[in-house]
Inverse folding.
């Protein structure tokens, strides 16, 4: 289960909408697996990141690819540690596509953190779904997403 407050969710979706028609992305930091709720990640902050994907062809552009640079991960990890938190997930948008992970998403993901995908259609965020990569890394499983007040 991934829990995020309404205000952080809105901060995230504004960033994703602003990035339209390209994919936009960022990092979720928060609390991982507290002992009373194993497998429950609580988002405490949202780190907005530029999509570092460089277009290599017309088909593989930032319209359907995203990349968070290693530097941004390191910075987010340091920021999380400083606040006694962890990186609990990564989020990105799917412009004019469903909020389901692509084959490319699967290949660049790893188990243990949440992948939050938001469908942005015509510049407006629509559906949001959270996904976990199976330990076998062969497929994602949907996890419940709770937007709290
Ligand atoms: Zn994707």
């Amino acid at each position: 289960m991934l829990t995020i407050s309404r205000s952080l969710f809105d901060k995230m979706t504004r960033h994703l909408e602003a990035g339209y028609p390209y994919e936009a992305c960022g990092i979720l930091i928060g609390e991982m697996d507290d002992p009373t709720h194993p497998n429950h990640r609580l988002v405490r902050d949202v780190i907005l990141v530029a999509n570092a994907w460089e277009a290599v062809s017309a088909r593989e552009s930032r319209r359907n690819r995203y990349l968070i640079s290693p530097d941004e991960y390191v910075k987010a990890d340091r920021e999380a540690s400083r606040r006694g938190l962890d990186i609990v997930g990564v989020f990105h948008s799917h412009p004019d596509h469903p909020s389901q992970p692509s084959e490319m998403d699967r290949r660049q993901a790893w188990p243990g953190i949440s992948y939050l995908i938001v469908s942005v259609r015509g510049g407006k965020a629509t559906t949001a779904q959270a996904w976990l990569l199976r330990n076998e890394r062969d497929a994602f499983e949907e996890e419940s997403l709770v937007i709290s007040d």
User: Anything to note?
Assistant: The first strand starts at residue 2 and ends at 5. Residues 6-19 form the longest helix (14 residues). The mean pLDDT is 93. The chain has one domain: 2-148.
